[in-house]
Amino acid sequence: MSDPPEPLVSSPPPGAPHRPPHLHEEGGAVPWTGLSILVVVAGLILFMALPQRPLSPQRLLELRAELYAERALDQLALAIQDYRHDHGAWPGARPTAERGLAPAVYEGVWFERQLRLASDDLGRVAPATSSAYPHGPYLPGGVPLNPLTGLRTVRLLEECESFDAIRDGIYGWLYDPRSGELRAHRLPILRKHATLH
Question: pTM, whole model, 2 decimals?
Answer without folding.
Answer: 0.65
